[in-house]
Amino acid sequence: MPRELSRTVLLDKIEKAAYEYERKFHGCSRCTLLPLQEYLELGDGSALRAAVPLAGGIAMTGDTCGALLGGLLAVGLATADEDMENREAFLDSLVAGFRFYRKFKQDIGHTTCRDIQMEKLGRYYNMADPEEYEEFTKAEGYLECAKVAARASRLAAEFILEQWERGVGKPNH
């Protein structure tokens, strides 16, 4: 964590950046991940590129929320090890991912794009269908997605900082 920022200020900046990225660029998975990468110094551009097809509930299918997946990618970047033989780091990262998943589900209420849309927008919009996508944008779907991406990014940052304090993973990993 950059020393010049207090924890609260850091979390606020991450949350705000995720919200603004989703409103401007779209792609909940990448918009959740990017501020975590920027402020916590995680990974590189390859992780961000890998996050792109996870948006819209995995390639616009409405399945697992892209913001959840972006947060999980950040958790992996922060806690996992590239050494395939490091079983301890592997298990620590899996447990961290499981715990973050539960935290997201408890806070957001759902883990699928479809269910989140139903709760926030009153119905599910198939974003792979051009007509439904247009309806989604008119219904301010990206406003709701931005709120979820922002919350997911903050939750992931809080979680990662807690993991680092517990000795799981390491800063600037």
Structural notes for this entry:
The model has no long low-confidence stretch (mean pLDDT 95). By secondary structure, the chain is an all-alpha fold. The protein has one domain. Helices cover 68% and strands 0% of the residues. The protein is globular and about 45 Å long.
Strand content: under 5%
Q: Percent helix among the residues?
A: 55-70%
Largest β sheet strand count, sense and barrel closure: none
The Rg value, from CA coordinates, equals 16 Å
Straight-line N-to-C gap: 12 Å
What characteristic shape results from the CA principal axes? globular
What number is the mean pLDDT? 95
Number of domain modules: 1
Give me the number of helical elements.
Answer: 8
Order of helices and strands: HHHHHHHH
Query: pLDDT below 50 for ≥5 consecutive residues: which ranges?
Result: none
Estimated structural class: mainly alpha
The counted number of beta strands is 0
